[in-house]
Amino acid sequence: MTFQQLKYVDEIAKCGSINKAAQKLFISQSSISNALKELEAELNISIFERSNQGVTLTESGRQFLSYATPLLKRKEEIESFYTYDSENSKLQFTVSTQHYQNVMEAYVKVIIQTENPNYHFYYREISLDKVILDVHRFIADIGIIIMTNYNERMVRYYLDKWNLEFNPIVHIQPAVFLRKGHPLSNKKMLAISDITSYPLVIYESNPKVNIDFSEGTHKLSREKPNKVIEVNGRNAMVNILCNSDAVATGSGLVVETMADPRLMSIPLEDSGENMTLGWIKHKNRILSTQSELFIKLLNESISNTIASQNGSKNID
To answer: How far apart are CA 81 and CA 89, in angstroms?
Structure first.
């Protein structure tokens, strides 16, 4: 398998036609067809279904392209990086993470402390399964996840399968996030039974992915509350919590400089959850200067948060 074959598949998929792809790539149709046949024979799959209207990806083809596209993108980034001279080289750095304010604080500080005049940074706030996949596919330099006693077996299965390593930073207690003035806001500690009658806000999950990859408190998720609101970003969650009696669960780590004064957190006493926040990387990947700086700043951010924690800050 070659990058040229991957590029051919990518272009055919975009064009929906082998002939149009050949024209766009300035090669003969026979050349691209032969390369495709060789690739399909090597992998023992059919990547495209042929018809009079053109070609469409098979299920195997869609899966193959999901792996091929990140490789092509990474190849382009590497080529772009080394086509610049040393003074103009564009620095690349990507962090994929679940939804945690400390990660954002550390990332912002990396940006501030980066002196290279040319860089292209990526910050991807996504679900646990996608974080692991990003690191596996070398899309992300570093991934930030929470491992719990509920998801550890599943998470470690994929880490071992894809040659990734988990580096723990801190053990934390789950908390409930709610607006100030909420009917439960005067309590110093909450139990799951206290919050089951209120709408639960969670980050959207892939229905095809095991529940162990869901965010929030797993014990609560397994009880399948009657009122559930799924959101795809932190801003949506914050606005819903601030303007309703909805609640959310999470790590309880809150960054004062990023705090929304309308929200507070209360420890959750009976979740049965042992939560460990940490970072993952591919075992074959050497940490860059940016990665080392980011990890240092993340540890500092978490240490400062824990030192100043008083249980009445913003959502994380």
So the answer is: 6
263 within 8 A of 179, measured Cβ to Cβ: yes
> Could you confirm whether domain 3-75 is CATH 3.40.50.970?
no
CB 67 within 8 A of CB 74: no
The reply to whether 172-275 shares the fold of 83-170+276-308 is yes
Distance separating alpha carbons of residues 277 and 292, to the nearest angstrom: 17
Please say whether the structural domain 172-275 has been given the CATH code 3.40.190.290. Answer: yes
Topology (CATH level 3) of domain 83-170+276-308: D-Maltodextrin-Binding Protein; domain 2 (3.40.190)
pLDDT tens, residue by residue, 121-168: 999 998 899 999 999 988 999 999 999 888 899 999 999 999 999 999
Plot region of 224 (φ>0 → left; ψ -120 to 50 → alpha; else → beta): left
pTM value is 0.69
Phi and psi, residue 279, nearest 5°: -120, 150
Looking only at the bridges linking them, the beta strands covering 263-267 and 119-125 are unpaired
In the prediction, which pLDDT does 89 show? 62
What are the boundaries of each domain within the chain?
Answer: 3-75, 83-170+276-308, 172-275
Q: Please give the DSSP secondary-structure letter assigned to residue 226.
A: S
Helix H or strand E segment including 292: helix 289-308
Rounded to whole angstroms, the Cα distance separating 7 from 12 reads: 9
- Each residue of 247-265: pLDDT tens digit? 998 887 878 777 788 988 8
% of the chain with per-residue pLDDT over 90: 37
List, in order, residues 6 or more apart from 276 with CB less than 8 Å away: 146, 147, 148, 168, 169, 170, 171, 172
> In the prediction, which pLDDT does 225 show?
74
CA distance 48 to 28: 19
Q: With DSSP H G I counted as helix, E B as strand and the rest as coil, what are the percentages for the chain, rounded to 5? A: 45, 20, 35
Phi then psi for residue 97, to 5 deg, are -150, 155
